[in-house]
Amino acid sequence: DAGVTQSPTHLIKTRGQQVTLRCSPKSGHDTVSWYQQALGQGPQFIFQYYEEEERQRGNFPDRFSGHQFPNYSSELNVNALLLGDSALYLCASSRTVQSASYEQYFGPGTRLTVT
Amino acid sequence: AQSVTQLGSHVSVSEGALVLLRCNYSSSVPPYLFWYVQYPNQGLQLLLKYTTGATLVKGINGFEAEFKKSETSFHLTKPSAHMSDAAEYFCAVSDYSGGGADGLTFGKGTHLIIQP
């Protein structure tokens, strides 16, 4: 059973550029959440997608946007990259049952470096 | 808004000794609580979770945690530390508002060091 997969593993971008990160959820999961983990910190919630819509959002600017596809996979897009966007980006998947989705399984992450 | 405090950014124990990692939370609704472990250059692995029911929760690799509502705590323990337990541990809380589950709020993490 494949777990959560993310691509690419590492990415180097320049300030002002745009980046797209991808995530495939664990088999049987329909909900995808994205987190940003700065070096030495705990992950911070960016947003969560369910039924191809953003269901909930953390305290992140509009430069961060996402998408969920009919096969439940998801993309995270970041525009106008800043040096402070350098971090490990984690995708987590879960299964929503009766509007509840609480056991999240994490992928290995994408390490983004902005220079 | 919920929050998580993990006491001690670094905890060092001897191999075979008791492991105790502390977590306190604040939440406006009955919380769901989680412990995750992260090994270097890897994602997070779920150790255990508390949702409802029994307050003593057993997880993988011999870890367990007890939900104490009166103390708003969810401390993680393991009776006997093993070298392979060295990692970063994160406590997290999720408010289930009934209309859709919140994203997780994480603590800053505790780095567990095992001394031989």
Mean pLDDT of chain B: 90
Beta-strand portion of chain B reads: over 45%
How large, in whole angstroms, is the Cα Rg of chain A? 13 Å
* SSE series of chain A: EEEEEEEEEEE
Low-confidence stretches of chain A: none
Q: What value does the average pLDDT of chain A take?
A: 93
* Greatest contact between two chains: A-B, 31 and 26 residues
Cα distance, first to last residue of chain A? 37 Å
Q: Separation of termini of chain B?
A: 41 Å
| Bulk shape of chain B | globular
Helical element count of chain A? 0
Helicity level of chain B, as a percent range? Answer: under 10%
Q: Give me the count of strands of chain B.
A: 11
Oligomeric state of the chains in view: heterodimer
Descriptive notes:
The complex is a heterodimer of chains A (115) and B (116). Chain A is an all-beta fold. Chain A is 0% helix and 50% strand. Chain A has no helices and eleven strands. In chain A, strands 2, 4, 5, 6, 9, 10 and 11 form a seven-stranded mixed beta sheet that branches. In chain A, strands 1-3-8-7 form a four-stranded antiparallel beta sheet, with no helix packed on it. Chain A starts with a strand and ends with a strand. Chain B is mostly beta strands and 116 residues long. The termini of chain B are far apart. The relative contact order of chain B is 0.34. Chains A and B meet through strand 5, strand 9 and strand 10 of A and strand 5, strand 9 and strand 10 of B.
